[in-house]
From TrEMBL:
It is found in: Cytoplasm. It is an enzyme of class 2 (transferase). NCBIfam families: polynuc_phos (TIGR03591), PRK11824.1 (NF008805). Its EC number is 2.7.7.8. Mg(2+) binds at D490, D496. HAMAP family: PNPase. Its cofactor is Mg(2+). Involved in mRNA degradation. Catalyzes the phosphorolysis of single-stranded polyribonucleotides processively in the 3'- to 5'-direction. Belongs to the polyribonucleotide nucleotidyltransferase family. The keyword Transferase applies. Residues 706-744, 751-763 have a biased composition (Basic and acidic residues). It comes from Aurantiacibacter sediminis. This is Polyribonucleotide nucleotidyltransferase.
Length: 763
């Protein structure tokens, strides 16, 4: 019934299997990829015609994780998968970026690539499997895809590269790298990474290792395509546009050359727009006689702009704004510009600017993430916003798109490796980057501004981090690598290569290519040039703030951490949380305790923290016989007063231990709520505490000499019916007690001793 085709290879110690022909047969291409026990289905569909007037390539990639893949039911009210999570959005971009450049110029048919995680084993990351499945599905679909590509994840541990580590182990205590690479047989197409300050050579070695492994995947996909590929689409012959380009060049070539010599972005855009308007006027006669020719000619304006800019860079080494190839635009940085934020920075590089703020919070502010791996909590967040006014445009405001999520995550990866451990700095950290101007690499401005704002907030980062965006102009064998690219150099160039790191090494590297890949020689040159640029930017940042401030802002909450024995956790929490709620209500401080006995006390008022800390110490500390404590009367009975001391312990001050003279009524000495000073006289085997007030100076808290003569030991007393009234462990013997009553003894008299609980009586 099914014409199933299968290819399997051993890869990284596991079997990778690609299947087609059994599932999703109505799609143009569908592949079920299995690696370990992780299974991803990718289906590709393509429109057979182009919408009228469409002049762009509408490729859409959707990656979705099914909770059933991990044997879980989604949280929330609806209990079903809903809006794409950040991870799903980022993985969709991860698939899109390397495949998009591999479609031919002028191909405008709409294509959907949908990847669904059907099984997840908890170890094999589904993003790499999805990239492979998408490449295979596109390759066999018949659409004009100039692939296939392979993909691999690389870790770096103890000086050795490892293939496809899990996300949990890639950056653990010994792991130093999480790198994802997509590549064709001949060249690297895309790089995404987070690293713990690796050198340029170590990063290059990781990319080369990943490329070698990706080639194995390319071979497997080709084997599958030889069995199951559909008939390739026939494309219209490519039109010779030489004559149109010559006409356009003669009409506005000089105007565009002059426009791209203007260093100011606004002036340059105005001049370019004027040249485009001139082209419309020059070919206005075609608008009625041959509308298709007219539109086709105007579409070439962008190509002419690219030709002028690229030619100037390759031939003369002249960039749009007059800089040298390795020159960074002027930088101005300042911190502490916003008075009420916990940390703030304004970072300006040329015509790119970011306002970055850092907010410190408690554990309550952590981000809860519900994914295939289960619930997890994130204590470092970085959010990036790109309002339309930053590029002088009118547009939708307030919507967070895929691009904003991607740029924010890139900056997050750059800064995360230098953060202190959560144990050393127990705050939740949120960095917010609002781009106020943009003309090239606002994500790297976010890295620099975000780093400065955290240092301004007193986050003790290990070392400052800076970032820079590199560009590439590639024509045949000739190429030029550009440092700190402008927006136009990004749009008209062939590469967007972002590198961030500290003086010790690289923390993140991201590369996107618009051509069919780049060589290791070009990447090596770009990394070398980027290192010099990063070092220069770090120097400019240091002029504003060289290291983190020694304390957090006065507006930030203070957090103090203490460790208690795990056996005492129940005592601090209390039945149903009664004790910990009381601590919070009485002191005003927030108190969080984990399963390991780590307690975090937070408040903007240090007195509240000290009060809560003292209370908790009182609960977990063991009382010492002979030691004096401050206490509070919490209950009064006929025979004495119960006093709470050390925060969570109660003891009895018998009426005989209140003063050296006789006390007729307890309430003559103390009332509920009174603050008193007590000495611990005895702790019995059941933990019950006997206290004394009479041997402590209630004003100074100093111990007084016990001047009262010791009482004679009590023996059998006549008239009480004989018999010792105390049973085992000091408890009453009911039979002898009754005998005592029959013997005429008055148990309501006799100096108060008979009102004392048995365990507190003298021997």
């Amino acid at each position: 019934m099914f014409d199933k085709k299968t290819v399997s290879i051993e890869w990284g110690g596991k079997t990778l299997t690609l299947e087609t022909g059994q599932i999703a047969r109505q799609a143009d291409g569908a592949v079920l990829a299995t690696y370990g026990e992780t299974v991803v289905l990718c289906a590709v569909t393509a429109a057979k015609s182009v919408k009228e007037g469409q002049d762009f390539f509408p490729l859409t990639v959707h990656y979705q994780e099914k909770f059933s893949a991990a044997g879980r039911i989604p949280g929330g009210f609806f209990k079903r998968e809903g809006r794409a999570t950040e991870k799903e959005t980022l993985t969709s971009r991860l698939i899109d970026r390397p495949v998009r450049p591999l479609f031919p110029e002028g191909f405008y048919n709409e294509i959907n690539v949908i990847c669904q995680v059907l099984s997840y084993d908890g170890e094999t990351e589904p993003d790499i499997v999805a990239m492979i499945a998408a490449s295979a599905a596109l390759t066999i679909s018949g659409v004009p895809f100039m692939g296939p590509i392979g993909a691999a994840r690389v870790g770096f541990r103890n000086g050795e590269y490892e293939l496809n580590p899990s996300l949990q182990t890639a950056l653990d205590e010994e792991g130093r790298l999480d790198l994802v690479v997509a590549a064709t047989q001949d060249a690297v197409m895309m790089v995404e990474s987070e690293a713990k300050e690796l050198t340029e050579d170590e990063m290059l070695g990781a990319v080369a290792f990943a490329h070698d492994e990706a080639r194995k995947i390319v071979g497997a996909i080709i084997d599958l395509a030889e069995q199951a590929a559909k008939t390739p689409w026939e494309l219209d012959p490519v039109e010779d546009k030489t004559a149109k380009m010559d006409k356009l060049r003669s009409a506005i070539g000089a105007d565009l050359e002059a426009a791209y010599k203007l260093t100011n972005k606004s002036e340059r855009q105005d001049a370019v727009n004027a040249a485009r308007e001139k082209a419309r006027e020059a070919f206005a006669d075609l608008q009625e006689s041959d509308p298709a020719e007219y539109l086709g000619t105007l579409k070439l304006v962008k190509k002419l702009e690219s030709e002028i800019v690229r030619g100037s860079i390759l031939k003369d080494g002249t960039r749009i704004d007059g800089r040298k190839l390795d020159e960074v635009r002027p930088i101005e940085a300042m911190v502490g510009m916003l008075p009420r934020t916990h940390g703030s920075a304004l970072f300006t590089r040329g015509e790119t600017q970011a306002i970055c703020t850092t907010t410190l919070g408690t554990k309550d502010a952590e981000q809860m993430i519900d994914g295939l791996e289960g619930l997890s909590y994130n204590h470092f967040m970085l959010h990036y916003n790109f309002p339309p006014y930053s590029v002088g445009e009118v547009g939708r405001f307030g919507f967070t798109g895929r691009r904003e999520q991607g740029h924010g995550k890139l900056a997050w990866r750059a800064l995360n490796p230098v953060l202190p451990t959560h144990e050393d700095f127990p705050y939740t950290i949120r960095v917010l980057s609002d781009i106020t101007e943009s003309n090239g690499s606002s994500s790297m401005a976010t890295v620099c501004g975000g780093c400065l704002s955290m240092m301004d907030a007193g986050v003790p980062i290990e070392r400052p981090v800076s970032g820079i965006a590199m560009g590439l102009i590639l024509e045949g064998e000739d190429f030029a690598v550009l440092s700190d690219i402008l927006g136009d150099e990004d749009h008209l160039g062939d590469m967007d290569f972002k590198v961030a790191g500290s003086e010790n090494g690289i923390t993140t590297m991201q590369m996107d290519i618009k051509v069919a890949g780049i060589t290791q020689e070009i990447m090596s040159k770009a990394l070398e040039q980027a290192k010099a640029g990063r070092t220069h930017i770090l120097g400019e940042m240091a002029k504003a703030l060289g290291s983190a401030r020694t304390g957090v802002s006065k507006h930030a909450p203070r957090i103090e951490t203490m460790q208690i024995d795990k056996s005492k956790i129940r005592d601090v929490i209390g039945t149903g949380g009664k004790v910990i709620r009381e601590i919070v209500a009485e002191t005003g401080a927030k108190v969080d305790i984990d399963d390991e006995g780590v307690i975090k006390i937070s408040s903007s008022n240090s007195d509240e923290i000290e009060a809560a800390k003292a209370w908790i110490e009182g609960i977990v500390e063991e009382a010492e016989v002979g030691k004096i404590y401050n206490g509070k009367v919490v209950n009064i009975v006929d025979f004495g007063a119960f006093v709470n001391f050390m925060g969570g312990k109660d003891g009895l001050v018998h009426v005989s231990e209140m003063k050296n003279e006789r006390v007729e009524k307890v309430t003559d000495v103390v009332s509920e709520g009174d603050e008193v000073k007590v000495k611990v006289l005895e702790i019995d085997g059941r933990g019950k505490v006997r206290l004394s007030m009479r041997v402590v100076d209630q004003e100074t808290g100093e111990e007084l000499e016990d001047t009262r003569p010791p009482r004679e030991p009590r023996g059998d007393k006549g008239g009480r019916g004989g018999g010792d009234r105390r049973g085992p462990r000091g408890g009453r013997d009911r039979k002898n007690d009754r005998g005592g009553r029959r013997g005429g003894g008055d148990n309501n008299k006799g100096g108060g001793d008979d009102h004392m609980p048995a365990f507190l009586k003298d021997d």
